[in-house]
Design a protein that fits this description.
Rossmann fold, Nucleotide sugar dehydrogenase, 6-stranded parallel β-sheet, N-(1-d-carboxylethyl)-l-norvaline Dehydrogenase, domain 2, alpha/beta, 3 domains, 537 residues, binds nicotinamide-adenine-dinucleotide
């Protein structure tokens, strides 16, 4: 095992980019390079316009990637979810409020590159953080994990890694994938020993930086041999730069691989459980929020992940449950597979129940009507739209032939949403520009204007009611704290809190009068680089 000075992360996606950025930020003495075969993605990681949106990500990348610049901030109360790294700044609690703080200059130690083989060759630790979606054809289609990208990277690593390098599965992979990597290494580099670790990532989209800066736990699985333990300790030392040792858990490699699938399946199961209860509540007059509060105060149950809604989305929950189902079934444990599959069945039932209810509320016909969806991302504070419930709802509504389906999302670029809908709805013209009914707006007011129904499909704070919900005759009251006039530093659209509060007020009023409302949100400015011919994008 070599001393660690150089880390290479293969895969510059939602996991690879932020994880490598935090590793580099917290270990200024290490060189961290993120490589990806996608040139455009790498170009954007190297630009001012990062390819993904996460609160706080821009600051961390800027500090680690462009390290030679000094970084200044004002010692004002910090919203931890927005700028988690600033909480760590030594001494900030002793500084006068409003003092200007300068983080000392540091050398750049975070790099983004398309030179995959070359960067692997220089690394002491290679993290594999590529996508592992559900297999769509062939054996196991619909539930097994598609290991195409992972396998391709494993063989690239096998060809280029230097002897003694530690290979780390960062991607979520089926249990016993370490054997696959070990065999691949043995085929390409017979006689050379490599340690394979499993280090699954537990970050959640929307809170990725907070989760990475303050993880509940870091899990490292290794083989139980002395060199396996040494490799595990080497990776642990990278995390120990900012994670308390007590939170770094070590297990055998298969436990670590399986733990990630189980974690996501259990979280999704809680959502499906409470959603199933919401269906009973709607038939009985019980209130699902009251039930959740009542059961959540029992510490054996806990209050997290008990919010009934339109079901979970995102790139991970469904595919990870399916992977667990496939594992159980391929082990002949059919009842176990069925048990976990039901979590997905319930999720789809809940989403469809919502769409059906919307249609029923509109007299079972959407002809000539405009329906607005507020929120397109699969959850708040992310631009990640993979497996978004909104898209499935749109597909169901489309069949009813509405005059218009209007979409607004505060974090997603309208250009990207349009392209995605075009690619995903193939059986009929979807977008207005193609003769379909869907329009993606840059302004929430325009999206809501003259709408027959406004559906809140992502739980963005912007769409929440004010604490005291307004009655019909009374205008919505604004919270007592004075609105912060600064633009949200991390919101791509640069909206101010004042503007967002106006949106609350507006949503509480009658949507169909929207044309008469003064339109402070009309100034939504999508990242210009992505709207036009930006050389970065
Ligand atoms: P992603 O699709 O955002 O990124 C994967 C990247 O890998 C892409 O940029 C792709 O171009 C690159 N890639 C694919 N094949 C490659 C190759 N042969 N060479 C170089 N680059 C290659 O995926 P993600 O969301 O970052 O997820 C990565 C892994 O992390 C998955 O296994 C996922 O299950 C897991 N995970 C994701 C999350 C999440 O919130 N997104 C959370 C925890 C774990």
């Amino acid at each position: 095992i070599r001393p660690v000075t150089n880390i290479c992360c293969v895969g510059a996606g939602y996991v690879g980019g932020p994880t490598a950025a935090v590793m580099a930020y917290q270990n200024p003495h290490l060189r961290v390079t993120v490589v990806d075969k996608n040139e455009q993605r790498i170009r954007r990681w190297n630009s001012e316009h990062l390819p993904i949106y996460e609160p706080g990500l821009g600051d961390i990348v800027r500090i680690a990637r462009d390290g030679s610049r000094q970084f200044q901030f004002t010692n004002e109360p910090i919203d931890q979810s927005q700028r988690p790294h600033l909480l760590n700044f030594p001494g900030r609690n002793f500084l006068q409020h409003d003092a200007q703080i300068t983080v000392p200059a540091r050398l750049p130690n975070l790099f983004f590159s398309t030179q995959v083989g070359e960067c692997i060759r220089e690394a002491d630790i290679v993290l594999i953080a590529v996508n592992t979606p559900t297999k769509m054809k062939g054996v196991g289609a619909g539930s097994a994990t598609d290991m195409t990208s992972f396998e391709a990277v494993a063989s690239e690593v096998a060809q280029h890694a230097r002897p003694g390098a530690i290979i780390v599965e960062k991607s979520t992979v089926p249990c016993r994938t370490a054997d696959l990597v070990r065999n691949t290494m043995a085929v390409h580099r017979p006689g050379i020993h490599f340690e394979i670790l499993s280090n699954p990532e537990f970050l959640a989209a929307g809170t990725a930086m907070k989760d990475l800066m303050y993880p509940d736990r870091v899990l490292i699985g290794s083989s139980p041999t002395p060199s396996g333990r040494l490799a595990s300790a080497a990776l642990a030392s990278v995390y120990a730069a900012w994670v308390p040792r007590s939170r770094i858990l070590t297990t055998n490699v298969y436990s670590s691989e399986l733990a990630k699938l189980v974690a996501n399946s259990m979280l999704a199961q809680r959502i499906s459980s409470i959603n199933s209860i919401s269906a009973i509540c709607e038939k009985t007059g019980a209130n699902v929020d009251e039930i959740a509060a009542s059961i959540g105060s029992d510490p054996r149950i806990g209050d997290k992940f008990l919010k009934a809604g339109i079901g979970f989305g995102g790139s991970c929950f469904k595919k990870d449950i399916l992977s667990l189902v496939y594992l159980a079934e391929s082990l002949g444990l059919h009842e176990v597979g069925e048990y976990w599959r039901q979590v997905i069945v319930m999720n789809e039932y809940q989403r469809d129940r919502f769409s059906r209810r919307v249609i029923a509320c509109l007299n079972n016909t959407l002809a000539g009507k405009k329906i607005t969806l507020l929120g397109y991302a699969f959850k708040a504070n992310t631009s990640d739209t993979r497996e978004s419930p909104a898209l499935e709802i749109i597909k169901t509504l489309l069949v009813e032939g509405p005059r218009e389906i209007a979409i607004f999302d505060p974090c997603c670029n309208p250009v990207v949403v349009r392209a995605e809908i075009k690619a995903l709805v193939r059986d009929q013209p979807a977008l207005k520009e193609d003769g379909g009914p869907i329009e993606v707006y840059s302004s929430a007011y325009e999206a809501c204007a003259s709408s027959h129904a406004v559906l809140i499909t992502t739980e963005f704070d912007e769409f929440r009611n004010t604490p005291k919900a307004a009655s019909k005759d009374e205008p919505a009251s604004l919270p007592t704290k004075s609105p912060d006039p600064r633009p949200f530093p991390n919101r791509p659209n640069g909206q101010t809190e004042t503007e967002l509060l106006s949106l609350h007020k507006y949503l509480l009023s009658n949507a169909s009068t929207a044309e008469n409302v003064d339109d402070p949100l009309g100034r939504y400015v999508p990242e210009p680089a992505c709207e036009s011919d930006c050389p970065d994008c």
